[in-house]
Amino acid sequence: MYESGVQARTDPNVHQPILKDGMTNWDRDAWVKKPERTLSIVPPAGAVNFSRKLVPAASHPLIAACGEPFVHQLLTHRFYQYAYFTTSLELNAIIVATKQIAMGEFWMALPGFMCRNAHRIIIDEAQHSLQSDLVIDAVVRETRISPQFLSPPTFLSNLDVLCSQLNDRRRRLALMGFCIVSETLISATLSQIPKDRAVNETVRFYVSEHAKDEGRHHAFFADVLRAGWRCLAPSDRDFLAHLLPEFIRWFLEPDHGWLRAFLRGNGFAAAEVERVISESYPQDVVAGQIRADARQSLDRFHEAGVFRCSAAELSFSKAGLIK
C-alpha cells in the first residue's frame, strides 16, 4: 500500500505490462560486489581528468591563452564537480525515492522482486557516493589540486523549492518522478568518458563501473514507470506531466556555478567569465544537446504511455523537448 495516499486505479481496458527481473546477476555484476580496487593514479603524460569535448569552455581562446597546465586544472575541477554532483544526487534524492519502492510504499503493488531490487539499487547508489569520495581523494593525491570550487548542484535547490510548496502526498509523487527522470537519462559523461583514452584510467574506471550499474537502474525505472503510470489518477498524471520536462531540463542544462567560481578564483574579471560561458555554451547548441540527451527518457515515456496524456504533450512541447 502506498502510504502517502496517491490515488491509484487499474483500468481493465489497459494492458498491464509483464515485468521481468533484470537484476538476477546483481551479485555477480554490481560494482559493489566486485573486489575493491586500489585507486592509485599513475596517468601517462598529458592525461586529463575529464573529457575535453564535454567541456566546451576548455577550448575557449581566453582559457587556451592561459596554457595547457591551466586547461588541465580546469578539467580536473570539472571532474570534481561531476563526482560531487553524483554524491549529492545519490544521497539526497535517488536513495530517498527508491526507499519508497523498497518499503512497498509505491503507488501500486509491485512484484516482490522489484522491491528487493530497489534495495539493491540503494546499495549501488551508496557505493557510487562512496566511490566518488574515494576517487576525488585519489585525484587530489596525484594532482595536488584541491576541490575548492565545488558548487551545490542547481537541481537540488530547485527540488527543495518545489517540495517546500507541496503536501506530503504530492511531494513523494514529485520525488519519484524526479528519480525516474534521473535514472532513465543516459548522460554524455557516462557514455563518453569510458571510451576517451585521453582521460586517466582511474577516472575512466570509476565512470565505467558507474555506467554499468546505471544501465540496470535504467531498465528498472523504465519498468516502474510502465507499471505505475497507467495506475495513476488523471489529476496525478497531469501533475507529473507538468514536472517531468522541468526535471529533464534541471539535469541537462549546464550548471556553471563551479566554472564561475574557478575562473573568478583564478583572476578572471566578471565580464571575461560571462564571455567564456556565453561563447562556449550558446543557447541554440545547448538546446540541441538537451534534446539529444533526453531521447532515452522520452523513449521510455512513450513506451509507458505518458504522451497519451494531453498535458504531457503540451508540457514537453513548451519545454522544447518535442515538436
What does this structure look like?
This protein has 323 residues and is mainly α. The protein has one domain (47-318): Ribonucleotide Reductase, subunit A. It has helices at 26-29, 61-64, 68-102, 112-143, 154-164, 168-184, 188-192, 201-229, 234-252, 257-265, 270-280, 283-293, 295-304, 310-318. The longest helix is centred in the first third of the chain and has 35 residues, at 68-102.
What are its keywords?
323 residues; mainly alpha; Ribonucleotide Reductase, subunit A; 14 helices; 64% helix; disordered N terminus
CATH architecture: Orthogonal Bundle
Distance between the termini: 38 Å
Rg (CA only):
21 Å
Structural class: mainly alpha
Instruction: Quickly count the domains.
Output: 1
Q: How does the major sheet shape up?
A: none
CATH H-level superfamily? Ribonucleotide Reductase, subunit A
CATH topology annotation: Ribonucleotide Reductase, subunit A
CATH class membership? Mainly Alpha
Helix content: 55-70%
How many beta-strand elements? 0
Low-confidence stretches: 1-14
Could you report the average pLDDT, rounded to the nearest whole number? 90
Helix-strand pattern: HHHHHHHHHHHHHH
